[in-house]
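Follow-up to my post from last week.
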Amino acid sequence: MHKLLLVLSIAAALNGSPALAADLNPRPVLEHHAALVYANYSDTLSSALALRGAIDAFLATPSEATQQAAQQAWRMAREFYGQTEAFRFYGGPIDDEHGPEGRLNAWPMDESYVDSVEGADGVGLINDRAFAITKASVTDHNERGGEENIATGYHAIEFLLWGQDKSETGPGKRSYTDFVDGKAPNADRRRQYLKVVADLLIDDLEFLVKAWRPGSKVNYRSRFVEGGQDSLRNLFVAMGSLARGELAGERLEVALNSQDQEDEHSCFSDNTHRDAVLNATGIENVWLGRYKRADGSIMTGPSPRDLVAARNAGIAERTSAQIAASVAAASAIQVPFDREIVGAKDAPGRQRIQKTVNSLVQQSKDLVAAANAVGITKLTLVQP
Amino acid sequence: MRRIGFVGASLLAISAMGIAGTPAPTEGIHHDWYAPRAAAFAVASAALTPAVQVLCEATPSQADASLQQARRHWLDVLAAWERLAGVAIGPVLERRSQRQIDFTPTRPRMIEKAIKATPKSAADMELIGTPAKGLPALEWLLWTQPVAPGTPACAYAVRVAEDIRREAEVLRQAKPGLADAQTLLSELVNQWVGGIERLRWPGMEMPVRVAATSATPVEPDFPRRSSGAAPLAWAAQWRALRELAMTGDASLAGALRARGHAALADALTGAVREADSAMQALETGDRERILAAAKRLAALKKQVENDVAPALGVTIGFSDADGD
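User reply:
Got it. Predicted complex:
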């Protein structure tokens, strides 16, 4: 039993009602959450380093085998980053005014901003030999002149590893020869570009790990754990905003409405079904104070759920059940996502996605009730 | 929250509902606010389809006048739509109508694909993605790539207009839900906050900020840019927000007064009037005034979140606007 739960249980036993006696000090929850965030970002960084290693090997010796190894490393890296999205939307290190989120995971991406696409050879930063491919210049051009002018991050790497997805049954089929001199125009610059964006990914993830590293008296984590109710509020804002506006809305419902591959989050690799599961799982991690690390070990500790349960066990239970239902519904979405979204309203794939949307929307309402139970009544996210 | 605060919040909610034992201000919102605006949108939409049809059947000598007439009808529909959807409550929210008929930005490649698909029925249109339908797509077909009479593109424009009319008619006929007064009030406050944010950020400020990042001078890509109707849309959205903030019993100020918060109601009304001044006669070329108006809207939103919502016992929750 967690220390917090133990205290609350003793208080309940003595007084007959947890709401009467429990001191809802959020500090143990915040300390454990900070440890969880640090662990998740550390695993994300480790998996990104593995990705960069695989990319280095691919660029040193381009072949189908090294390309597939890099693709697999990208998929594995997403398994950890996807869960960290539950740490967004409250102006923390990932997405405050200077946060790297827009460099790490911006989408949808206009591929022609970076490289040749079907019907438009020779376009993009890679094919513009007057453009110097450096960390600074690529960063400077990310989202320049338009939200879809994505130059960096997971999806830029994804596009370079897979290419455009023109298949109804599988992901993009970029040839490794695009990276071989003499086999494709500007192969040298394509290699250079992929190397630079992989390095930038590492830089930004290292920044996040540092912001949440324990033992510092000046980093974000040190302020977060001292933040009391404001920090606790941030956890609810993050969970609800990701569930409702981002995952249910931008990533699932918009795709359902548009029936367009452009609205598929990881459209080049056909990995969108995992993005949905990982986002939903990330929310569950925060709610339960639980996280399965890359080495398979399980972190557990005091959680928002525990605090809510001390005030209103029914709301806590209902919220836990709904969050679990969302993870299950997202897990039922089939690959490829770009075929799941197509068809009439009663098409099976569309119904699977709609079920996930409905569950996430209900989950966001339950999270409002849960936040209310611990005295939090304003849950708007931080906007520019 | 400590127990005393928890009890206090509960009493506030009960108090609000108790006052609403007599008809609550928000209970009239469907009848007084939503229904007339939905009816106006349906009337405007019903006139749009025949206007586009006339364009498609026009002789060469009639074509330009018919195009101008279809455009005028589109602008009428846009104004009626923004006056209704500026604050997306009731059926507009439940049916997700904004995503159905107002998906922005439209996607020309999808419109071109849809034209080739030659949809002929409502069922056919269900298979067309929303970026190729609705008001933005029709704006593209009337302004960006104006359709010519007798072409497949013109026939598709008629289908798009029909699709808008169908949605408008459903919205007109929709009955109010059975939610209690506090739930309605909560929806009003939350959707009002979402509405003002939609106007402020994606509608006004973000396009200006994005344009400023361009290496070469570019015009801000405001919604409704092709038709030049951005100011019309801003005014119509703001009108919906202003009315639901301060006009009559079915408004935020009305709800505040009904609960004895006259000072807060006065403060809200004052802030709305200040924002109203900033929103008057905005033009797309005047970036400084647009940013100044957006700043006023941001302050007003903050006031509603921080002062109005707590006084009404409403939690500002999560909305579709929370994504990035």
